[in-house]
């Protein structure tokens, strides 16, 4: 089912589409793959946070010098723009380097 989430913090209150993926035929396979990859992939440089609470925990003891700037970026339509072939190659390379899975 398709639902919408209003972005009340933006001008003209655009709607972000939400799709219920849990009923899709490939959902269980995707969840299993996610579990396997999450335990095997090593993020060498993690520059993201899940939410504002995690951000606060990350920066609360950080010393920010006068010449440094804290920046935040919002990605629009990220998953429709991910190059599939390149992404699969990066995941395979990471798994070969950091895991004992057979590829």
Structure description:
- With 103 residues, this protein is α+β, with helices and mostly antiparallel strands.
- The protein has one domain (2-98).
- 36% of the residues lie in helices and 10% in strands.
- It contains 3 helices and 2 strands.
- It has helices at 27-40, 52-59, 84-98; strands at 2-6, 15-19.
- The protein has a two-stranded antiparallel sheet.
- Strand 1 and strand 2 (15-19) form a beta hairpin.
- It is flat, with a radius of gyration of 18 Å.
- It starts with a strand and ends in a 5-residue tail after the last helix.
- 0% of the residues are buried.
- The model has no long low-confidence stretch (mean pLDDT 84).
- This is Reverse transcriptase domain-containing protein.
- It comes from Clastoptera arizonana (Arizona spittle bug).
Key descriptive features of the protein:
3 helices; 103 residues; 36% helix; flat
């Amino acid at each position: 089912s398709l639902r919408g989430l209003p972005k009340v913090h933006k001008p003209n209150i655009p709607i972000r589409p939400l799709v219920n993926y849990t009923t899709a035929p490939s959902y269980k396979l995707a969840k299993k793959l996610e579990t396997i990859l999450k335990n095997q992939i090593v993020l060498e440089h993690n520059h993201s946070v899940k939410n504002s609470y995690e951000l606060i925990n990350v920066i609360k003891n950080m010393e920010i010098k006068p010449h440094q700037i804290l920046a935040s970026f919002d990605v629009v339509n990220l998953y429709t723009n991910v190059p599939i072939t390149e992404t699969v190659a990066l995941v395979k390379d990471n798994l070969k380097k950091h895991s004992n899975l057979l590829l």
